[in-house]
Design goal:
Layout lengths: L1 H10 L3 H9 L2 E7 L1 H8 L6 H16 L10 E6 L5 E6 L1 H9 L3 E6 L2 E4 L4 H4 L11 H4 L5 E6 L40 E6 L2 H5 L19 H10 L3 E6 L2 E6 L7 E6 L1 E2 L2 E3 H14 L3 E4 L1 E2 L9 H11 L3 E5 L18 E6 L6 E6 L4 E5 L10 E5 L18 H4 L3 E5 L5 H10 L4 E5 L15 E3 L2 H12 L5 E6 L10 E2 L19 E4 L3 E4 L18 E4 L2 H18 L5 H10 L12 E2 L5 E2 L2 H4 L6 H4 L4 E2 L4 H10 L4 H5 L23 E5 L7 E10 L5 E8 L4 E6 L2 E4 L5 E10 L8 E9 L4 E10 L1
Parallel strand pairs: 6-10, 6-13, 7-10, 13-15, 15-16, 16-25, 19-20, 20-21, 21-22, 24-28, 31-38
Antiparallel strand pairs: 1-3, 1-4, 2-3, 5-12, 5-14, 8-9, 11-12, 17-18, 17-23, 19-23, 26-27, 28-29, 30-32, 32-36, 33-35, 33-37, 34-36, 37-38
Helix pairs in contact: 4-5, 9-15, 10-11
Bound molecules: 2-acetamido-2-deoxy-beta-D-glucopyranose (NAG) (6 copies).
The site of one 2-acetamido-2-deoxy-beta-D-glucopyranose (NAG) has 2 residues, from strand 9.
């Protein structure tokens, strides 16, 4: 304290230095060695992290300028279970001293992650009271789904608890009081709600309480939507202004929900997400759903991955969204193998809008607008609509004199299509046509004026018409909801593999519905998400891998209630090996990133999830915690890196496996440029969970340029639970262009089952 006072006197003179010293302070997530720390620091009554801080504060003040003492290390979180360490604001000097403390392991700067912004149960084959939705599966189950997101609107009809049995006694979570959130907001459906924001505040995030409630209440809409997708109640007659009408249903609609709010207006701090995951595991969730992320990172630097590993070892199934940064290569985030990474694709439902041009040509676009059609009106675009940025209908770019009474065309970019429509309306325009030149995606917006968006081929045709016509005109008409479209198709926005940080594992793992998903909306936001839009609806339609991820969380909950003894890896294997790759027209699943192209495993992983098949997969590829630790050893992790994943595990001196031997339900094979005569041989072990006495024969579709040998090629099981192994050799036949890939599959076929693994071969 005296030191601080002394420092005060110097403060005026050194104000400039101080501000740089303070700016220098950053939040770090610090991992410590529990055994060493408890030996060294737990002698007196102080909490251990305070003792550590005292020691590094002393260090700095002895060695450095007095000024340093003015800003002692500031604790943000202390992590005790699963991850022993803390998050703290430290100066560079303090970090240096901390590194000298016996027991220091790693310090990684905090990061900001972002959110990856009901008809789908039927599309998934969940119906009436059959199959997985049969009462015997649902009522006896008591699965708890934890959702880490932007909070929840607890009063929403999707979270009512009528008829639900008491909360399982194993549940240790809580319903935290906060701004506009009280303990009575939880019930037997929403059994827990907590808010994590200390990391956000420490990293300079300002949670403006006139814009968001400092509690688990959802002021953004994202968390309410994802939570209701995973486990919202059955709500009859749900729709968005009559669109997508029907019974809204969470995929696992009898499961319990626990919300962990870690995402705020400015993003989700990794320190908060880490704290939320650890808390959720402690509280007793069975499944965790996270629709957020940053980008693919080395697993030992990725706190979401490290925390997810702890969840895995605790028996919790964890699924993350892959991200919305597609269709570029290697854009997938959350790629650790113990995580199920979800891509996004369409369902057979669409919201067509018809754009008719002055030359009589008709194009189908998409829209959630429900009003009357426009008349045939003059069309303006770019220079004929306004000044700089008018082509994109950017804020204040449109000229009311040019736009009034007309239809404005707006190209994709900078702001979303609903916000472009808002600009058109503000400038006096009557309608908007959104043009996209990169893809054929069909995600729809709840426009505030008559508007539709077109895919790339229609956009080009419409632009060509505009370019070649003196007085171009158009009209837009709205066709409501249509079913039976070709589906699924992988969305262009869905992030892609290959997996940059783990070449031996295909990512994403599967795809699920993530385009135009109807789910719960809080009453404080509009369906267009525009502030100026005063319309309200209990259900809204959103798109993103954020929406596909909770579908898979819901399915995992159904599988968990049916197969109580299945490990997270077994559930994952079942979801992957039963995923389908042929669409409802009998064709390979298409990729909307380019017209007519087929989705590869780098877009959809093993394929589209099939909950009914996944509940009875025949064989599973199981993976234990120990297996994963050996896998990390095979990646040549150092002792310090290994210690992040497990206390007290040391890699064997002798190499026990290649990374490709991980018992993963898919195969990523990497050849050097000239692969002629190179052979990789990997081992797999399958466990019989189907029919006790059964015979499986292998069926292989070889990727171009590769020959495949499977030994043995017949597996004969005599009982349930029996494990049999096989070896698969990939023989390179050619010299491949660097970065090129080819694809195939390996399927174990019995009378009843097909257990499929995709194969992705890449030449590097
Ligand atoms: C908080 O938000 C309100 C409303 O958007 C705004 O007027 C105010 O300036 C903000 N306060 C801070 C400190 O950013
Ligand atoms: C906080 O929650 C209340 C509901 O209790 C809501 O009316 C209000 O708009 C929320 N505040 C903000 C800033 O979102
Ligand atoms: C269904 O909802 C619509 C509009 O939201 C309403 O007009 C209608 O009466 C409702 N039908 C039933 C059966 O509740
Ligand atoms: C949706 O509404 C339309 C028109 O009101 C009706 O014909 C249709 O049956 C409804 N669909 C569902 C799934 O309820
Ligand atoms: C339309 O004209 C613009 C500007 O001259 C040009 O950039 C664009 O490529 C043209 N589009 C088509 C489809 O011809
Ligand atoms: C591949 O192996 C075969 C048989 O061992 C040999 O004849 C051939 O020359 C080899 N090719 C290359 C490119 O090494």
């Amino acid at each position: 304290m005296i030191k601080i006072f002394d420092a005060m006197l110097l403060l005026v003179a050194f104000i400039a230095i101080l501000s740089t010293a303070l700016a220098d302070r950053q939040t770090y997530i610090v991992r410590m060695d529990k055994a060493k720390i408890t030996n060294t620091f737990m002698i007196d009554s102080k909490p251990w992290h305070e003792a550590v801080f005292d020691s590094i504060a002393d260090f700095s003040s002895q060695q450095e300028q007095e000024l340093e003492a003015a800003a002692p290390p500031e604790l943000v979180y202390s992590y005790e279970t699963g991850f022993f360490g803390f998050a703290a604001k430290l100066s560079a000097k303090q970090l240096e001293s901390l590194k000298k403390v016996d027991g220091f392991m790693t310090a990684i700067p905090d990061q900001m992650l972002s959110l990856h912004t009901t008809h789908t149960p039927q599309f998934l084959g969940l119906e009436g009271s059959k199959g997985l939705w049969h009462s015997s599966n649902l009522q006896t189950s008591d699965v708890i789904i934890g959702v880490i997101d932007s909070g929840i609107w607890p009063e929403h009809v999707s979270f009512k608890d009528h008829g639900m049995p008491p909360i399982p006694s194993r549940w240790k979570g809580s319903c935290e009081k906060g701004s506009k959130f009280s303990t009575s907001n939880c019930n037997k459906k929403l059994i827990g709600a907590r808010a994590f924001y200390k990391g956000n505040l420490a990293s300079g995030g300002k949670i403006n309480q006139t814009e968001e409630n400092l509690s688990a209440r959802d002021d953004a809409g994202h968390g309410t939507h994802t939570a209701s997708t995973a486990a919202g109640n059955l709500v009859p007659n749900a729709s968005l202004f009559g669109l997508a009408n029907g019974t809204a249903a969470g995929i696992s609609y009898t499961a319990r929900i626990a919300m962990y709010k870690a995402c705020w207006v400015n993003g989700c701090s990794a320190a908060d997400v880490l704290a939320a995951i650890l808390a959720a595991v402690e509280d007793g969730v069975d499944v965790l759903s996270l629709s957020l992320g940053f980008k693919a990172q080395l697993y030992y630097r990725d706190h979401s991955a490290i925390a997810a590993f702890f969840a895995f070892t605790s028996g919790v199934f964890v699924t993350f969204s892959a991200g919305n940064s597609g269709p570029g290569e290697s854009t997938a985030a959350n790629t650790a193998p113990w995580i199920l990474t979800v891509a996004a694709s369409t369902s057979d439902r669409s919201f067509p809008a018809i754009v008719k041009l002055g030359n009589g040509k008709i194009f189908q676009g998409t829209s959630l607008y429900t009003g009357e059609a426009t008349k045939q009106l003059p069309v303006v675009y770019g220079k004929t609509a306004g000044g700089e940025g008018a082509q994109y209908c950017m804020v204040d770019s449109l000229n009311p004199k040019l736009v009034k009474g007309k239809i404005v065309m707006c190209e994709q970019g900078f702001i979303n299509f609903a916000a472009k429509g808002e600009q058109v309306k503000l400038a006096g325009g009557v309608g908007m046509i959104g043009l996209k030149f990169g893809d054929e995606d069909v995600n729809a917006h709840a426009h505030i004026l008559p508007a539709a968006t077109l895919g790339a081929s229609a956009s080009e045709a419409v632009e060509k018409y505009f370019n070649s016509t003196k007085l171009p005109t158009a009209s837009i008409a709205f066709k409501g909801t249509k079913y039976g479209n070709r589906a699924p198709m992988v969305a262009a926005f869905s992030s892609r593999g290959p997996n940059l940080v783990g070449l031996d594992v295909i990512k994403p793992d599967v795809t699920a519905p993530g385009v135009n998903i109807l789910a719960a909306l809080p009453p404080v936001i509009s369906p267009s998400l525009l502030k100026s839009d005063k319309r309200r609806a209990a259900f809204g339609i959103m798109s993103g891998t954020s929406m596909s991820c909770p579908h898979v969380a819901g399915i995992a909950a159904l599988l968990k209630s049916k197969h109580k003894n299945w490990s997270p890896a077994a559930i994952k294997s079942a979801l992957m090996t039963t995923a389908y790759t042929i669409d409802n027209r009998g064709k390979p699943i298409a990729d909307l990133s380019a017209r007519g192209s087929e989705a590869t495993p780098f877009a959809m992983g093993s394929g589209h999830v099939d909950p009914v098949k996944a509940s009875d997969p025949g064989l599973i590829y199981d993976i234990t915690t120990e297996d994963y630790l050996h896998y990390l050893c095979s990646l040549k992790y150092s002792a310090a890196q290994m210690a992040l994943f497990s206390e007290g595990f040391t890699c064997p001196k002798k190499v026990t496996m290649q990374p490709g031997d991980l018992n993963y339900p898919s195969f990523a094979v990497n050849f050097k440029g000239n692969a002629r005569n190179t052979t990789f041989t990997y081992e797999r072990i399958v466990t019989n969970v189907g029919i006790p006495r059964s015979t499986y024969r292998v069926s292989v579709e070889e990727p171009k340029g590769v020959s495949i040998i499977v030994k043995p090629n017949v597996l004969r099981f005599k009982k349930l639970g029996e494990k049999l192994s096989y070896k698969v050799s990939f023989v390179g036949l050619k010299k491949g262009k660097s970065g090129s890939s080819s694809f195939g599959s390996l399927v174990w076929v019995s009378k009843k089952y097909r257990v499929r693994s995709p194969i992705a071969v890449t030449w590097r």
